[in-house]
Write a structure and sequence with these properties.
It is a single chain. The chain is mainly beta and 238 residues long. It has strands spanning 2-6, 12-15, 19-23, 41-49, 54-60, 64-71, 73-78, 83-87, 90-95, 100-106, 113-120, 130-135, 145-151, 161-162, 167-173, 177-182, 188-196, 198-201, 204-207, 211-215, 219-224, 228-236. It has one domain (2-236): Jelly Rolls. The strands form four sheets. A seven-stranded mixed β-sheet has the order 1-20-17-22-15-13-14, with no helix packed on it. Strand 2 (12-15) and strand 3 (19-23) form a beta hairpin. 37% of the residues are buried.
């Protein structure tokens, strides 16, 4: 087994006034040659956007984008004709493919929106852009890791999927729980990110916003303390 620790305090940061951002991987003004990506996982940004502010229309291409609001609401509009609001408790996916433009604005005038935005390299470039979203609560089972996004090849009707052999899993633990995650492919790795609370992963204690990458193993065992929330992203390492 191999592992790499990413304590929360070692992330990159930026303060644009309207945006407070923390970067798990090199992004914008933050560059660390040892933290460009984890396998096919390229971006995990932890953003706080001021009321009524946000990202104006901008392009993306050949990237799988997953957005998970934590507090507040985010208004989305894109060149595919999609327009709507995603709130805390929702998860949104967008395949940029051949190219898409979109804007993301805080939908509320009186409170910040807090969100994670995650980018994964696609397994195939030049696909048709697409968009989908769901309520996370509909996808979760209590006190265990639940898969919320799958590869297209593993998806059934109604599943959220992306163009990569990646599995996004979220665990919401109201009780202290030990759980073991089995990799779908032995060539994959897992990036384990603590959204809230505290966990122990392979003898490493992680607190809120800490992360660990693990590979060269078939499984990962996590002990989550009460009231902890965990994001585990399984991705190809090559």
């Amino acid at each position: 087994m191999k592992k790499i620790l990413h304590p929360a305090a070692t992330r990159g940061s930026a303060d644009y006034g309207w945006l407070q951002a923390r970067y798990s991987f090199s992004f914008a003004n933050f560059f660390d040659p040892n933290r460009v990506q984890f396998g096919k996982l390229r971006v995990l940004n932890d953003d706080i956007v001021a009321p009524s502010m946000g990202f104006g229309k901008h392009p993306h291409q050949n990237m799988e984008i997953v957005t998970i609001p934590q507090e507040g609401a985010l208004k989305h509009r894109d060149s595919m004709g999609n327009e709507g609001v995603i709130e805390a408790g929702d998860i949104q996916i967008m395949s940029a493919g051949t190219g898409v433009e979109h804007s993301e604005l805080n939908a509320r005038t009186h409170e910040a929106v807090k969100l994670f935005q995650i980018w994964v390299f696609p397994e195939e470039e030049g696909v048709a852009p697409r968009y989908d979203q769901k309520r996370i609560s509909d996808l979760l089972s209590p006190n265990q890791l639940s898969t919320v996004v799958k590869p297209r090849s593993a998806a059934k009707n109604g599943d959220l999927w992306i163009h990569q052999q990646a599995w996004f899993n979220i665990g919401e633990f109201s009780e202290k729980t030990e759980t073991t995650y089995q990799f779908n492919n032995k060539e994959h790795g897992a990036y384990v990110f603590v959204m809230d609370g505290s966990i122990v992963v392979e003898n490493e204690t992680l607190n809120k916003r800490d992360a660990i990458g693990i590979w060269d193993t078939d499984s990962v065992t996590i002990t989550a303390e009460r009231n902890s929330r965990v994001l585990l992203i399984e991705v190809p390492m090559n």
